[in-house]
Amino acid sequence: MKGLELSLLAIVSATDKTGYALDSKQTPNTLPDKESRLDFYLQQVEASKDFFVENNIKYLVCDGFYAKEKTWDKAASAGLSVLTRLRCDANMKWLYAGEQKAKVRKRKYGSKINWKATDLLDKMDLAHSYATTEKEYPQLAGATLYSKVVYSVKWKRKLKIVLIVKTEKGKQSMAILACSDLEVAAHLVAQYYSLRFQTVSVAIEFIFRVLKQHLGLTESQTRKEQRIDFHLNAVAMTYNLARMENKLAGNKKFSLYDIKSE
User: What is the domain extent for residue 173?
Assistant: First the structure.
């Protein structure tokens, strides 16, 4: 609903697969001329630059909405590499690896990538395969990863592409992930993205649900900007403290309902 949107910047520990709220802001009702909501979100990222540096945070993981040129630039200025998902028709080219002619400018890029081509996977590097019994990252169970560094025509930069290919009930599905860090391992790209969106205890949607159901995120009745900001971040901090208490107690599962009962 207009005026009730919340922008939440969260951090994820890849070691213990736990998500924590870092900064909450209500999206402004009006924005300066030529400034979009994406600009506001990226300003929130830039404002936390010092925190990222001090805590060795390297990746900004975001959905396809953020796959825009300004995201790559703003993230880089904050010391982050972007990891996102691309459309199934993303305009990419292979890097040219053939013979070069001696007296002309060297060719950098090859043909446009056809994501529906039958020989697509043959042109990529087989990076990693997950067993169907995978438990640590269940959403990647049975998936095969293919990777390649390619050239983005739209953003005029090289990106590391990771294809997640799964076959279920005889039907093949594919997701295209992209990362501005060209050296990162393909399996880390897939795992970081899956942690951000699909693991129940980590996903930012899970954080939203807990804040609303158990901590009164939507129950503030003030209309003053500073008080709203205080309420949003106080609720988020309460969630973080509950998370830490649960971790220090040695519990493997997290239930805010149980913590409130205790």
Answer: 92-182
